[in-house]
Amino acid sequence: MNPEKAKYLAENMELRSRTDRLWLNNPVVMQGLGLAPLVVAATTGRNALILAMAVALLLTPTRLAGALLGGVLPRRFSIFYYAGVACLLYIPIYYACLEVFGVGIRQVGIYLPLLVMDQLTIRRYAQEKAEKPLRALRRGIAITVGYGMVLLLVGFLREFLAAGTLLDEPVLSVRLFPLAAQPAGGFLLVGAICAAWRGCIRWYKKHVNMEAKRGV
Amino acid sequence: MSIVIGGLAQFFLYTVAAFAAQNAVFGRSLGITSIVQMVEDPDRDSVLFCLLLTLVQLISAPLCWAANLAMAPLSLRVVLRPLTFFVISALVMGAVSLLCRRLFKGARGEKMARMLPPATFNTCVLGTLLICAVQSFNLSQYLGFALGSGVGYFVSVLLVMEGHRKIDRRSVPASFRGMPVMLIYIGILALAVYGFTGHGLAI
Known about the structure:
The complex is a heterodimer. By secondary structure, chain A is mostly helical.
């Protein structure tokens, strides 16, 4: 690694650790958000795609609407407008998902409507100050991408391990880890993925710091 | 008389089912993010949180049952359920908040009122009410399931907190410390629920 780049990265590591929702501060791996659909409903690639589409249509608009309403309504009512907007948005989102995936959306059961009350969607209400709309938009998109990435990884991995298929296409003739399709397997797998991810981040931070010191 | 006894039997049966075999946390992962936050923030009063969650869930249950019954002829009921249940939960939260302020003056009442929004608007409350609606439970089943789910959530929180306390931090590899080891621990406990049912629960 270029010493100057390493020095720059090391100096800004704390800020990046707070703002990078993709790797260094992923909403699932570092904050434990949106775990319920991930552990129970994301058992196949198709289910993960349904949930990812719903999150993509729900999260950023809710956060943006919450930021806009936060500018005009008292902060003590923030939970009502964040959750209320999410519940209203769920109506067109359900039909959009139905249009794209057909009756297959029944596979995710209650975990589709449950997204409206997930901390991933409404947790911003707990903050004392209202967010600026542009910042809400930027953060919303970043969190959506970060969450969607983990959702798809877990969904496809669980389908592969539990059934030996990818999007219903046979890949293996053996079932490597059938328990992956159950919530218990979901907990174990998500725990292992979080540990591996956090391990990589620790290694990366250590590596950047060592390179920066070497440059000095 | 037989209707009352039948209703009580259903209430008891569904309470036990929601508490053990269909446990909200280990079987369906409901409210798991709140547990992660409770474990990482030891100052948060987990007992009070669970009590408020159970109370809101139990009071909301009959109202949601009535609303679900009223919506039965509507073709839009599937998409209207989250909004309807949200409005009901919000009204119940308001009533419980007023009650808390009346019964507990000063800092304690304020603390309870502050803890009510996260105890009301989470995946455990909405998830429990949605399961009851989707599976077309009757009133006694609604009440039994809501109570059992709340008590099951409370016991799950106690088990996870105790497990978290007992896991020796020095012996856990650095990458596994915190949430990852906790999820693996919950996964092992969830295997016991899987042993109860022998199959995945309908979601």
